[in-house]
Amino acid sequence: MIQPFRLHLPKNASQRRVIAQRGYERSIDRLNAAVTVEERDAALAEVQRKKRAYGAILLSEDRMARPWMYDKGRRGVRARNRPSMP
Question: Domain of life here (predicted)?
């Protein structure tokens, strides 16, 4: 039996993140319920797709929150674009 990773979702978690987390947990349940080899392989592929989708959502949210970390170019350009710390 495979246990899904249970992430603590903050109260202000985006709807996309909540939906992706629930989809991942449902795919783990399908994997645990699989009986035949074909069902298991299909469920495992679905789990991997859901994990990648969740990671992509986290990356896109992080890019929006900290764009200076993902700027392309010289190091000095990144430092100038960084907001000042209080």
Answer: Bacteria
Is 40 within 8 Å of 34 (Cβ atoms)? yes
Give the predicted TM-score (pTM) of the model: 0.70
Give the amino acid at 66.
R
Q: What is the pLDDT along the chain (86 residues), one digit of tens a residue?
A: 666 666 678 888 899 999 999 999 899 999 999 999 999 999 999 999 999 999 999 999 999 988 878 776 555 555 555 666 55
CA–CA separation, 9 and 18 (whole Å)? 7
- Which three-class secondary structure string do you get for 15-73? HHHHHHHHHHHHHHHHHHHCCCHHHHHHHHHHHHHHHHHHHHHHHHHHHHHCHHHHCCC
